[in-house]
């Protein structure tokens, strides 16, 4: 059973995601966003599909494309930041719009080995670091 809300009928980025992120790239299906949290290299993929809340709200072709784009984002984080581990999750408890977190983790990061949520306050990027991080990610994505 689908959990799609009745409105809107065209894709719009959830205001909370827009507030917490910076745009990095547009893939075939997803917008790639950088979470404004310097504690972790953290990408968010948002399928540009109106009313998508759950993975099952995507058709089979979109589900396959999302899987490919998660792999693309994961490789970009590995290339750019050499993490020890990647965390990939689609939770949606606070923001229902379908989005997938791809987070580079290190065994010495502020939250290790716990999940990043609720472990430490977000630390916004400095303007210089933000510009550098976005460029490194765009280069790694081939964007």
From TrEMBL:
Top-level taxon in the UniProt lineage: Bacteria
Keywords, ordered alphabetically: Hydrolase
Pfam families from the UniProt entry: HIT (PF01230)
Sample GO molecular function, one term: hydrolase activity
Record bears the keyword Transmembrane: no
SUPFAM superfamilies found in the cross-reference section: HIT-like (SSF54197)
InterPro entries (alphabetical): HIT-like, HIT-like_sf, HIT_Hint
Keyword Hydrolase attributed: yes
Residue span(s) of domain HIT: 43-112
Protein name per the record: Diadenosine tetraphosphate (Ap4A) HIT family hydrolase
Species, as recorded: Aerolutibacter ruishenii
Highest classification ranks of the organism: Bacteria, Pseudomonadati, Pseudomonadota, Gammaproteobacteria, Lysobacterales
């Amino acid at each position: 059973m689908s959990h799609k809300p009745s409105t809107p009928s065209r894709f719009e980025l959830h205001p909370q995601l827009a507030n917490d992120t910076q745009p990095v790239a547009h893939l075939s299906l997803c917008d790639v966003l950088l979470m404004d949290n310097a504690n972790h290299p953290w990408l968010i993929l948002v399928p540009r599909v109106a009313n998508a809340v759950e993975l099952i709200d995507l058709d089979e072709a979109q589900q396959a494309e999302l899987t490919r784009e998660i792999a693309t984002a994961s490789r970009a984080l590995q290339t750019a930041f050499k993490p020890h581990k990647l965390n990939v999750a689609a939770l949606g408890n606070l923001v229902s719009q379908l989005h997938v977190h791809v987070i580079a983790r290190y065994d010495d990061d502020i939250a290790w080995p716990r999940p990043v949520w609720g472990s430490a306050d977000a630390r916004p990027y400095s303007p210089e670091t933000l510009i550098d991080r976005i460029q490194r990610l765009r280069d790694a994505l081939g964007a």
